[in-house]
């Protein structure tokens, strides 16, 4: 008697490559692996960076980005997609076109605009394409506080009420839900706000005192995508990802990597 193996959950990351391995595609694939999901990738840009900063960006031709996405979907049963660095308008357009034909995959959009070092990772003319083409396809949009303000052309939100209000205005751009990340906030807790059509939810975790936070945003959005790929409901996936990323940050000081903002510990459950 032949038995059929259970379907392996598959997630695709569409993002830039981090040569130091702490963020971008590398962090996404580590996250997928740590959470039991098979990861595929479509690289939008090559960056020369390490824990102290970013020195160069080479944008992959949009036609090649499209080809990467198409061949993955043609062969693999992709259940969720994480979108990170899209670099430019043309790349955002081809990603939107490719994914519009694959509505079965749930999309987590992390609107990466600026690196931790301050280097711009999204061309200014790409912001409109992000708003008009990619956000409406997203099951979840995951900006941090500065990104939420930039997407709305508004000042940085300074209170819980202001953050939730920005979340509702981002929701109006077409995403099914918005998670505004609180890592750039102040206080003893890092509070993320999940805003959806039915209301909002504050998710708090202790703020960790470590400089090893490189790739935190990339990894959180990837962890949510991993949960969605496994069939979890959105709120369950967000809560699970929040708990996992908090533990990964708490374990980050087990590493001594680089001379700046080191990586989090993606595999803290295993070693």
Question: How would you portray this structure in words?
Answer:
- The chain is α/β, with parallel strands linked by helices.
- It has a single domain, classed as 3-Layer(aba) Sandwich (UDP-N-acetylmuramoyl-L-alanine:D-glutamate ligase), CATH 3.40.1190.20.
- Helices cover 35% and strands 23% of the residues.
- The protein contains 8 helices and 9 strands.
- The protein has helices spanning 24-34, 62-75, 89-100, 127-134, 145-152, 160-171, 216-229, 234-250, and strands at residues 10-18, 38-50, 53-59, 78-83, 106-109, 140-141, 177-180, 189-196, 199-206.
- The strands form 2 sheets. Strands 3-2-1-4-5-6 form a 6-stranded mixed β-sheet. Strands 7-8-9 form a 3-stranded antiparallel β-sheet, sandwiched between helices.
- Strand 8 and strand 9 form a beta hairpin.
- The longest helix is centred in the last third of the chain and has 17 residues, at 234-250.
- The protein is globular, with a radius of gyration of 17 Å.
Helices and strands in order, then pairings?
Layout (H helix, E strand, L loop, with lengths): L9 E9 L5 H11 L3 E13 L2 E7 L2 H14 L2 E6 L5 H12 L5 E4 L17 H8 L5 E2 L3 H8 L7 H12 L5 E4 L8 E8 L2 E8 L9 H14 L4 H17 L21
Parallel strand pairs: 1-2, 1-4, 4-5, 5-6
Antiparallel strand pairs: 2-3, 7-8, 8-9
